[in-house]
Structure formats: structure tokens, C-alpha cells
Amino acid sequence: MTAMRSGGLNRALLALAGLILLALGGAVLAVGLGVRPPSWWIHGGPHDVLLSRAERTRYRGARWWWPALIAALAVLVLLALWWLSAILRRPRLAEIRVDTGDGAFAVLRARALESALAEEAATAPGVAHARVRLRGRRRKPRVRARLRLAPEVDPSRALADFTTGPLAHARESAALPALPADVRLGAVRHRAERVT
């Protein structure tokens, strides 16, 4: 739902920006071709410039002008980069298509599978915390898991337990031919013990 909302917002913002640029460009082109603009328009005829020399150099001597201009441009660049990263960020998978075996498909909510995977992984010995996210496409999901391990646990054993246990169970229950996973292991932080 969030990805849908942000996708609609992105389309609306792009459409609005496009309409504004189209209207401004069309108006400037029309004036350049000889259409008489209204009195409030930013330039008055085909030989008029958008900004006169006086308007361009009015604030050049003010001490606040250049820092304010650079700050405003930096904010615009940061907003554009934030928007671009939000668009390019891969959305979370919402649902998975499960083959029911009779030629039809059932829909499984991705969050339900994520929570089942995380709960089962957290019950494994030595796993203090598990976090699971599904990415990819509805027919070919991918798992991203983060497991926090107790200090005494062997990471290779914990990884093997996760792949043969929760990951295999999720693949079988969703009737998926494969369920690739990116598993990140980390240790639980704990206070240093005092030796006396």
C-alpha cells in the first residue's frame, strides 16, 4: 500500500512539474512568435529578455546573496537526490503467488511469510533476534535476513540451521522452486564482564 501511495505521489508530482514547465515553455514560445501577452506576464514581447541587466545584478553587492543562492541550490539538489533515491529504492514485496497444483494460483501476503520466517529463525539455538524481508517479484521472491547471534554460536552452524530449517520450510510451504536468500549475521552486543 505504501509503495502504491508513493508511486501515485511520484506520478502526480512529475505530472504537475511537467504541466508547469509545459505551460511556461508554451507561453514563452507564444510570446516569441508574436502573441501579445497580458500586462502581468514576465516579459512583454519577442525582443524582451526574461531578466534585465538591473534585475540580474541587483543583489550582487549584498553580502547575503551568494550564500543564500548557494544554500537554496544545495537544498534543491539534496531534495532531487532524495526523491531519486526514493524512486529507485526497491519496494517491499507485498504478496507472493503460490501454485496450488490445479493450474490456479493463490496469493500469500509477503508480511505473513516474513513474520513466520523471522519467528522460526528466532527460535533456533543461539539466535537472539531475526529480521526478514522479502524482495523481488511475486513469482520469484528473494529473502533478505539479518540474524543476531549469541557470542558463543558458530556462524556457519547458524547459517546451515537457517537454510535447512526456516528457509526450507518457507520454500516448501509457498511451493516455490527456489528461494534465494541473502543472510547477514551479526553478534549481539553485550557488556564486557568484569574479572576480579
Give a verbal description of the structure.
The chain is an alpha+beta fold. The protein has 2 domains: 1-50, no CATH class; 95-187, Alpha-Beta Plaits, CATH 3.30.70.1350. It contains 5 helices and 5 strands, in the order αααββαββαβ. The chain has helices at residues 2-32, 53-57, 65-88, 110-122, 155-173, and strands spanning 95-99, 105-109, 127-136, 141-149, 181-187. A 3-stranded mixed β-sheet has the order 3-4-5. A two-stranded antiparallel ribbon has the order 1-2. Helix 4 (110-122) runs antiparallel to helix 5 (155-173). The model has no long low-confidence stretch (mean pLDDT 82).
Brief characterization of the structure:
The protein has helices at 2-32, 53-57, 65-88, 110-122, 155-173; strands spanning 95-99, 105-109, 127-136, 141-149, 181-187.
